[in-house]
Design brief:
The complex is a heterodimer of chains A (about 110) and B (about 110). Chain A has about 110 residues and is mainly beta. Chain A contains no helices and eleven strands. Chain A has a single domain, classed as Immunoglobulins (Immunoglobulin-like, Sandwich). Chain B is built from no helices and eleven strands. The chains are: A mainly beta (about 110), B mainly beta (about 110).
Chain lengths: ~110, ~110
Amino acid sequence: EDQVTQSPEALRLQEGESSSLNCSYTVSGLRGLFWYRQDPGKGPEFLFTLYSAGEEKEKERLKATLTKKESFLHITAPKPEDSATYLCAVQDSSSSNTGKLIFGQGTTLQVKP
Amino acid sequence: DAGITQSPRHKVTETGTPVTLRCHQTENHRYMYWYRQDPGHGLRLIHYSYGVKDTDKGEVSDGYSVSRSKTEDFLLTLESATSSQTSVYFCATQPGVAKNIQYFGAGTRLSVL
């Protein structure tokens, strides 16, 4: 059974203090791993898709990496506006015709000025 | 912004009453999804559609039905609402198989009293 586990559940950082969020996954065949950002009261907003181990993608202060068992979302010198819940999801290769995603429970990041 | 509108945005109803939530998209995306989001459970797939009149169940489909009579509209119906269906409901769309990024609406907060 496909499974996604995110850690930590919550993370508090000072502005400028870099850190990483973890997403561990178990799938029979990975078609894609997705990172989303969710602000309170809003829907998830797409950040990155990673397709194969060793792949990396960057956007501003965020960098996502992928191995065969996990993905990391690295946050460099975060700012208060980076505060949000970050969601990880995987798509199994058997779900390629349906697009079905399995989500982790998310990591809630708070960045204090 | 994938042009997804969910209505209503908030609803309070009583146990045993029928409820219909609407998702409308303007992007002509093939796939549409209904998720629920609850504390401790993350996003869970209720039902999805891979074309007009083509729908299938997700992992938490009991007590829910869906319909898609037009590409742009995907309806979620709670035939007889229960307190366990109190949740935040999100609609998502995906362009197609090759472009497998899901875009989310703003959500509907449903309270069943």
